[in-house]
Amino acid sequence: MSRPVGFVGLGIMGAGMAGNLLKAEHEVVVWNRTASRAEPLVEQGATSAVTPSAVAEQCDVVFVCVSDTPDVEAVLFGENGLAAGLRKGSLVVDCSTVSPSATRAWAERLAEAGISFVDAPVSGGSEGAKNGTLSIMVGGAADDVERARPYLEAMGKTITHLGEVGTGQICKLVNQILVVVNMLAVSEALVFAKAGGLDLEKTLTAVTGGAAGSWMLANRGPQVIARDWRPGFRLDLQQKDLRLVLEAADSLGVPALATSTVFHLYRTLEREGLGAEGNHALVKALERLSGFEAAQD
């Protein structure tokens, strides 16, 4: 009889991803630092464990989706962490967005105990997590990736194996550069349109289907003009990812001019206490500079 799959971390992304494993009729054991977040999944049929190690004791494949590099470190190797409960031959799949160098170090450490590791960060926002349409960027040995694939297919529509452990995280940072620079363009364009006296709904209709169209424009542009700051991805988590981008860019010796600009704009918004808003709140920084608010009249 096959053992259940584990899922650790039930935040804005993890809850939807674990829910799609249940919809695909996988048996799922879950854990979250705030235990109450597991309750909706338990109602859907999941089993809740009291610690990450308790998840590992019941599962041969465990997914992790938490906020930052130190969080993954704690879940893996902290008190009652996964490593304390995993058996030889187990597989950890980390869907968090974290440091590529730390990812490689964790894989090496787990390999010493006969445990495999795959990094599989995701993109697509809370909508993609809920609908099972995420883009998943995967790094790891081919056999390990194929072992994880049936679960990944329950959570995402585009699953790309980039190469060895760590390449998934590098690709996710590429994704984040594109996301934030695109959002900067959306923000600048909407503020410009407002200053020029355009109807913003009609402007979005005019440009979304053309060469300027993008996912961020189509999905976040309407939120901006409606002043809807509910997060598909929180601003403070986006800022954490940009720190990872800038650290990696520095180590690689490549320029990241636009990313750096967005990082500093987000910093001004964090200081205003806006970290829990969606990453599209970037527009507020440009609104403050220009004196125009990109709101539909």
Automatic annotation (TrEMBL):
Query: What keywords does the record list, in alphabetical order?
Result: NAD, Oxidoreductase
State which Enzyme Commission number(s) the record gives.
1.1.-.-
Listed GO MF terms: oxidoreductase activity
User: Where does the record place the 3-hydroxyisobutyrate dehydrogenase-like NAD-binding domain?
Assistant: 166-286
Gene3D superfamilies on file: N-(1-d-carboxylethyl)-l-norvaline Dehydrogenase, domain 2, NAD(P)-binding Rossmann-like Domain
Domain 6-phosphogluconate dehydrogenase NADP-binding span(s) in chain numbering = 5-163
Which family is it part of?
A: Belongs to the HIBADH-related family.
Indicate what this protein is called per its UniProt record. NAD(P)-dependent oxidoreductase
Q: Show the taxonomic lineage.
A: Bacteria, Bacillati, Actinomycetota, Actinomycetes, Propionibacteriales
